[in-house]
């Protein structure tokens, strides 16, 4: 959001790329205010779109999606900064208990002999 509007590759081409990446969220937000995504560049100017992207309302689906993506990216960066033996791998949902892992590992090692 910041990079697109301030200092990123801007202009109409940058807005079109952003629009392509986030078309569903922008379409939902525009429908909420009685507009259509097809009005962009016609009755909704590119400047108005840029301004809206820079400061979307708190109720914006786009804002929610951008915040979720930023949080996921921050979590990945934080995980990557940890020493390798402390990094999170997978989730609790796919975690294997230690005794099951040991049984698997022992069986795999035996099969390789």
Strand content: under 5%
Mean pLDDT over the residues: 83
**Helical amount:** 55-70%
What is the number of independent domains? 1
The shape is elongated
Order of helices and strands: HHHHHH
Radius of gyration: 22 Å
Largest sheet: none
Total number of β-strand segments? 0
The N- and C-terminal alpha carbons lie at a distance of 55 Å
The total count of helices amounts to: 6
Structural class by SSE content = mainly alpha
Uncertain runs are 1-7
Could you characterize the architecture of this molecule?
The chain is mostly helical and 113 residues long. The protein has one domain (2-82). Helices cover 61% and strands 0% of the residues. The model is unreliable at 1-7 (pLDDT under 50).
Quick overview of this protein structure:
With 113 residues, this protein is mainly α. The protein has helices at residues 2-5, 11-21, 23-32, 46-54, 61-81, 98-111.
Notable traits:
113 residues, 6 helices, elongated, mainly alpha
Helices and strands in order, then pairings?
Layout: H1 2-5, H2 11-21, H3 23-32, H4 46-54, H5 61-81, H6 98-111
């Amino acid at each position: 959001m910041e990079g697109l509007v301030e200092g990123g590759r801007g202009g109409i081409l940058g807005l079109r790329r952003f629009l392509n990446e986030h078309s569903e969220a922008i379409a939902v937000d525009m429908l909420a205010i009685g507009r259509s995504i097809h009005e962009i560049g016609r009755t909704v100017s590119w400047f108005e779109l840029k301004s809206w992207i820079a400061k979307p309302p708190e109720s914006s689906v786009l804002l929610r999606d951008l915040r979720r993506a930023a949080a996921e990216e921050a979590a990945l960066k934080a995980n990557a900064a940890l020493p390798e033996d402390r990094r999170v791998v997978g989730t609790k949902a796919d975690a294997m208990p230690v005794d099951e892992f040991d049984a698997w590992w022992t069986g795999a090692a035996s099969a390789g002999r």
